[in-house]
Write a structure and sequence with these properties.
alpha/beta; Arc Repressor Mutant, subunit A; 11 helices; 11 strands; single chain; 304 residues; 21% strand; seven-stranded mixed beta sheet; two-stranded antiparallel ribbon
Length: 304
């Protein structure tokens, strides 16, 4: 096995000389004697057979070869520091990976804020994010695929904390035939029209929350696709209020004048898969979810 002639310590000394402007300044910054700094650089040049520094007045400057080599050495030094940081994180028990399943109803703004605040704490922890619909987060917990889940129902055998309520409103494009009736709508009116729903991403205990008992129904896998279809006049549906504010303001969607059932509510909960043995990264991420949700975001009101 080949052993490198140079050491990271030698390259660090060379970098200090260049950044500090000279041998004496580098020695002070590194808390070394000037003679040891001079010796290490001289030894490095001897080992490599390449001149790395030249004296320009009172400043030490890199030669072209020295500049090329130090650029590569900086990458090695950075990698070594990252390796030490990773070792420190692992020594503290930080997990190398945290997996989280998030119901598609959870506001994207909040999710992004959670991850933004988590990133500086977990530079060496990978995040695996699984976006789910209906019972998908429950499946991820039961099948032990995730450490944390944001779900609309807590599966048997788990405990969770209530996070937030999601409000749904029955809507359709303003030119949809249901709006053309010009009166309060009944269930029979809805069953004679096409409803667009999102298919459950779970398979263990799938459910059909919000579906009417009718064959006039199309299923899609993407909430965004459903939104686009309804905005373009294809069917109607109950959509999460916070997800469609822009479309309501743009006149692409209009609440249906249902006599009863225009609005619905669904609660989201935060579930830690194994709270008794959860590591620091999992606990930090879960606490950030609680914090960000508690602080909240200001959503515009539903337009009339």
């Amino acid at each position: 096995m080949k052993i490198p002639k140079s050491t990271l310590e030698q390259w660090q000394v060379l970098q200090a000389i260049v950044e500090c402007g000279g041998y004496a300044q580098a020695a002070e910054a590194l808390h070394r004697s000037q003679s040891s700094v001079s010796y290490m650089v001289a030894k490095l040049q001897e080992q490599l057979g390449v001149e790395l520094l030249q004296i320009d007045g009172r400043r030490a400057r890199l030669t072209p070869n020295g500049k090329a080599l130090l650029n590569k050495a900086r990458e090695l030094l950075g990698g070594a520091f990252q390796l030490e940081q990773l070792a420190a994180s692992l020594a503290e028990g930080w997990e190398p990976q945290v997996s989280i399943a998030v119901d598609s109803l959870f506001p994207v703004q909040l999710l992004v804020q959670v991850l933004r605040e988590f990133e500086p704490w977990a530079r060496h922890t990978r995040v695996n994010l699984e976006e789910t619909v209906l019972s998908g987060s429950e499946d991820a917990l039961v099948e032990k695929r995730v450490d944390i889940a944001i779900a609309s129902r807590i599966p048997v055998g788990f405990l969770g904390d209530a996070l937030m309520d999601i409000d749904f409103v029955a809507v359709a494009h303003p030119c949809h035939p249901l709006h053309a009736l010009g009166r309060e709508l009944e269930v029979d009116d809805l069953t004679r029209n096409l409803q667009i729903v999102v298919r459950d991403s779970g398979t263990l205990n799938p459910r059909d929350h919000g579906w009417l008992n009718t064959d006039q129904r199309w299923s899609v896998t993407s909430p965004q696709t459903r939104m686009e279809m309804i905005c373009n006049g294809i069917g109607f549906g109950w959509l999460a209020e916070h997800k469609m504010q822009a479309q309501l303001e743009q006149g692409l969607l209009k609440p249906l004048p249902l006599r009863v059932g225009q609005r619905r509510k669904l609660s989201l909960s935060l579930i830690v898969a194994n709270p008794e043995v959860a590591g620091p990264a999992t606990c930090r991420l879960a606490n950030l979810v609680r914090k960000v949700v508690a602080e909240g975001i200001e959503l515009p009101p539903l337009c009339a």
